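Narrative of activities, Objective 1.

The group set out to show that a structural description can be obtained from nothing but a protein's sequence at a throughput compatible with the screening campaign. Below is one input-output pair from the validation batch, recorded exactly as produced.
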Amino acid sequence: MKVWSELFVDSLVRPRLAARRLLALELPGPVLLEAALLVTCLGMILGFVTIQLNPGALDAMTSLVLGNPLLGAGVQLGLLFFVTFLIVRVGRFFGGVGSSRDALAVVVWLDAVMVCVQAAQVLALVLLPPLATLLALVAMFWVIWALASFVAELHGFPNTVLVFGGVVLTMTVVFFGMALVLALLGAPPQGIE
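Output recorded for this entry:
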């Protein structure tokens, strides 16, 4: 248990070192799949609790996904595997050497850390709502930096700042690509009725 708690703390303050330690564990594929299912279920439970505590804070699409557990879990699990795929393919495009199994370990671990952060947000939402908003902003920036650090370690890239730029650029391209696909399918942009 001590290994996991140290890895958790390192993930928050020294993500590149945490990535090195996580990858050294060489977790088997079946364990990673079980962990992916676990973090997906925990994330859905926390999302449901968030809706119950603050129902007006979410847009209709998010409420629909979180309000339907099977749909929400499927979407969340699908996104987890999509991010893993992107980490492998984009990283290899730029000369990275990371494997799919190791990329899955990175994504599942970061999701597990984010579930803990989400639990802290739910607690803050109950005790001190403005703190929940601040925690959400800090978590958003932290997860992008941590992802860049883990991806840099996974693929053997020496410069985490360049990887950070690559992560932001990839996220932007994916976001606009998905928006274009949704627009072509006739879905209105969020907030427009």
